[in-house]
Write a structure and sequence with these properties.
single chain, about 250 residues, Jelly Rolls, Arc Repressor Mutant, subunit A, 2 domains, four-stranded antiparallel beta sheet, disordered C terminus
């Protein structure tokens, strides 16, 4: 299996063999979890950052009356925990959505990476900036987009995140999410999600079945969602979606 983190960092800049070796060491240790297992509990001591090697995971919090909020789904090559670096204990729960392999590494190892290569340090902060932009877009969805627009926007987002190296929309992706997962992330009820997904399918925008999502009409999906991929792509990269109408 190729290194997810090397692929991810290489997207932002060319890497030397020394820099690739530093990144590869972050993936030396691998731990597998079954679907539904909690990888890390809110309130536990914070020692490790995680890289997703394979599978789908999510970061969440449960509020009063067992109301769950999912902040994001993390997939191959994504970091988990960098938003909590300044804390001694974890602020959120971290779950395996599918059978998942993660690579934990002590947060202190970031110092080695930064000292070895200023380039790796700069790329790391570019990645953090991108993750913040994803969060900001999610807030726009929660506050300003209709249910069907929120879901269409998320489908566009995840399809590009799966093809981050190519920077284009993947027409068919793994999609193990259930209606309740989408609802808990986008602030909707399962009924709203069901109706919106059915409308997207009936209108010929998408097709989906158990664990698979296919985009049938890319232009219409982009137009409906008002999706602009600028928040996913580094400025130096060009995407065929850059000039899409919003």
């Amino acid at each position: 299996m190729s290194s997810c983190i090397i692929q991810k960092f290489s997207y932002y800049d060319d890497l030397t063999m020394v820099e690739k070796d530093v990144l590869a060491r972050l993936e030396d240790k691998k731990i597998s979890y079954k679907a539904g297992e909690r990888i890390r509990e809110k309130g536990s001591g914070f020692e490790d950052i995680y890289i997703i090697s394979e599978g789908w995971t999510y970061v969440s919090a449960t509020h009063d009356k067992s109301i769950r909020t999912i902040f994001d789904f993390r997939i191959d090559g994504d970091f988990v925990g960098v938003g909590e670096l300044s804390f001694d204990k974890h602020l959120y729960d971290f779950y395996a959505l599918t059978n998942t392999t993660v690579c934990p590494f002590p947060k202190a190892h970031l110092d080695e990476m930064f000292e070895t290569s200023p380039k790796l340090r700069n790329i790391f902060f570019l990645i953090l900036s991108r993750e913040q932009a994803i969060t900001n877009e999610r807030l726009i969805s929660l506050g300003r987009r209709t249910a069907i627009e929120r879901i269409a926007h998320f489908i566009c987002e995840i399809s590009i995140r799966f093809d981050v190296i190519g920077g284009s929309m993947k027409k068919e992706t793994e999609f193990p999410l259930r209606q309740i997962h989408i609802a808990d992330m986008l602030g909707l009820s399962s009924v709203h999600v069901s109706k919106a997904m059915s409308k997207l399918k009936e209108s010929g925008f998408i097709d989906y079945s158990l664990n698979k999502m296919r985009i049938l009409d890319e232009k219409k999906l982009l137009s409906l969602s008002g999706f602009n991929p600028a928040f996913l792509l580094p400025p130096v990269k060009k995407s065929k979606y850059t000039d899409a109408e919003t």
